[in-house]
Design a protein that fits this description.
single chain; alpha/beta; Aspartate Aminotransferase, domain 1; Aspartate Aminotransferase, domain 2; seven-stranded mixed sheet; three-stranded antiparallel sheet; globular; binds pyridoxal-5'-phosphate
């Protein structure tokens, strides 16, 4: 049985060219970039080359890129870094109810340290309420942190508009772009973004490496204290192989992103069409148009997402129910609840995220396999067809 991987939003396989590029930095060019001999300077050179490549993908300057251990650290560094560096100016932070836990739990922690956090609502498509955002601003607001695209439903937020609102008031704007880097075009300069998080393993790079873009001139309080690495913003010997891999992944994304995006969108639409023709009462989650090309998140009414996942797994199909980072808990997704989806419907969510190796044959196999799974599960479903869910959204 061919394994069909449809969970690229959780993580991606490392691109073979990325692996090839990384290998010499484990046991050939293993010098510490802070040392002065040639073996070390070659490693340092490779780190700087990778910095250029990351910068090129998002239209930043190389010196504005700080390498981190991933998206979580980049989010922590941005939010805590701005909060502590600007404590004297104010203590209010604005974020949204649908952020990744790397942002939400950082904000919750800051609340315990005396910061005031406002969590903005979203509409039924997962779009930020810009009016609520504007009304929440006070003279104490120091930071707005709103994600670029949501990891569960793929909705792309109006970040240029949010950056404009922030700039008018002299407030910093951070965006968690972990799900968008390498998938859609990003121009941090044109969009007016101040801080921007990305992660290697979501764009065919290695796990455990990421970066934070910090616009030139912005001061942050570092999270880690130690040596003078990364312009005193992030202490610790650089993860040279990981950084080299991230750079290569960004270089590949520059070349392939546009055509790959079109291909994935067509496959994703084929999947939704096929499933909705064969399964009644399914709901598309996320924005119908402003959504990541490879994302399909649906709620299948009267069945549990987890049960569908287990049955799909038996057929060799890997998908997810809500966010991979929160799966394992039986709480319905905080994102779907924030979008106003009743808990009993949210429990039936299924996310397919497509990527590099997804083929038309894979899509057609899912369209063949999922409807009988749903029929079987519905036949034994504890949720009657008379549940409240029938009234939802009609
Ligand atoms: N932010 C978003 C939107 C994500 O989807 C993820 C990972 O799922 C992260 C942050 C965390 O990134 P990392 O796994 O690199 O720590």
């Amino acid at each position: 049985m061919k394994k069909i991987y449809m969970d690229y939003a959780a993580t991606t396989p490392t691109h073979p060219e990325v692996v090839k590029e990384m290998l010499p930095f484990f046991n050939e060019v293993y010098g510490n970039p802070s040392s002065i001999y040639q073996l070390a300077q070659r490693a340092k050179g490779a780190v700087e080359e990778a910095r250029e490549k990351v910068a090129r993908l998002i239209n930043a300057e190389a010196e504005e890129i700080i390498f981190t251990s991933g998206g979580t650290e980049a989010d922590n560094m941005a939010i805590k870094g701005i909060a502590f560096a600007n404590k004297k100016r104010g203590n209010q932070i604005i974020t949204s109810k649908i952020e990744h836990h790397a942002v939400l739990n950082t904000c919750k922690w800051l609340e315990k340290k005396g910061f005031k956090v406002t969590y903005i609502s979203v509409d039924k498509y997962g779009m930020i309420d810009l009016d609520e955002l504007k009304k929440s601003l006070t003279d104490k607001t120091i930071l707005i942190s709103i994600m670029h695209a949501n990891n569960e439903v793929g909705t792309i937020e109006p970040i240029s508009e949010i950056a404009r609102i922030a700039k008018e008031k002299g407030i910093y704007f951070h965006t968690d772009a972990v799900q968008t880097v390498g998938k859609i075009t990003i121009n941090v300069k044109e969009s007016g973004i101040d801080l921007f998080s990305l992660s290697g393993h979501k764009l065919y790079g290695p796990k455990g490496v990421g970066a934070l873009y910090i616009r030139k001139g912005i001061k942050i309080s570092p999270l880690l204290h130690g040596g003078h690495h990364e312009k005193n913003k992030r202490a610790g010997t650089e993860n040279v192989p990981g950084i080299v891999g991230l750079g290569k992944a960004c270089e590949i994304a520059v070349k392939e992103m546009a055509t790959e995006g079109k291909r994935l969108k067509a496959l994703r639409d084929r999947l939704y069409k096929g499933l909705s023709e064969q399964i009644d009462e399914i709901i598309l989650n996320g924005h119908p148009v402003n959504r990541l090309p490879g994302n399909l998140n649906i709620c299948v009414q009267y069945v549990e997402g987890e049960s569908m996942l287990l049955n799909l797994d038996l057929e060799g199909i890997c998908a997810s129910s809500g966010s991979a980072c929160t799966s394992g808990s039986l709480e319905p997704s905080h994102v779907l609840l924030a979008m106003g989806i009743p808990p009993e419907i949210a429990h039936g969510s299924l996310r397919f995220s497509l990527g590099r190796d997804t083929t038309k044959e894979d899509i057609d196999r899912i369209i063949e396999v999922l409807p009988p799974i749903v029929e079987k599960l519905r036949a034994m479903s504890p949720f009657g067809k008379n549940s409240k869910s029938k009234e939802y959204r009609e």
